Amino acid sequence: MDRLEKMLVDIRAFVAEREWEPFHDPKNLAMAVASEAGELLSELRWVKGEDADAHCREPEARRRVADEVADVAITLLMLADRIELDLPAEVHRKLVKNREKYPVEEWRGR
Ligand SMILES: [Mg+2]
Fold first, then answer.
1. Distance 51 CA to ligand 1 centre (A)
2. Ligand 1 mean position to 108 CA, how many Å?
3. How far is Cα 15 from Cα 19, in angstroms, rounded to an integer?
4. Residue 107 falls within a domain, yes or no?
5. Which of 16, 22, 69, 75 could form a disulfide with 32 if both were Cys (CB 3.0 to 4.6 A apart)?
6. Residue 45, domain CATH
7. Domain range for residue 73?
8. Is 28 within the bounds of a domain?
9. 0.85 exceeded by the pTM?
10. Could you tell me the distance, in angstroms and rounded to a whole number, from the CA of residue 94 to the centre of ligand 1?
């Protein structure tokens, strides 16, 4: 079992133990992704762009940011799982599409 499959097994168990599946329709999960992304963003609100790397290395802020990054990942994985997307395959497919949209010769450094 690879790490992604292990995460899915753990997430499915967490949800099943709480009988939360009825709440996890695709619309609710998409809202949960956006909500958790908002929580992640709130950790960096008012931090100047040039200070953001240092902020994310500061231990207490790092823990809060890591919590929200994990929440975004968990909710996104739940959504992909619910609608039966093969997430690694979709990421690969989208990167191919993005490479065509943003050719290196045209987009390097800009
Ligand atoms: Mg959160």
1. 22
2. 34
3. 6
4. no
5. 75
6. 1.10.287.1080
7. 3-85
8. yes
9. yes
10. 26
In a domain, 39, yes or no: yes
Distances (CA, A) of 11 to 15, 61, 82: 6, 25, 12
Cα(61) to centroid of ligand 1, in Å?
A: 14
- Beta strands per DSSP E along 8-99: none
Closest to 75 measured CA to CA, from 21, 22, 11, 23? 11
Burial letters for 80-99: b for 16+ Cβ neighbours within 10 Å, e otherwise? bbbeeeeeeeeeeeeeeeee
Q: How close is the Cα of 37 to the center of ligand 1, in Å?
A: 8
Asked if residue 105 belongs to a domain, the reply is: no
Per-residue pLDDT of 37-80, as tens digits, reads: 999 999 999 999 999 999 999 999 999 999 999 999 999 999 99
For the chain, the domain total comes to 1
Give the distance (Å) from ligand 1 centre to CA of residue 64: 9
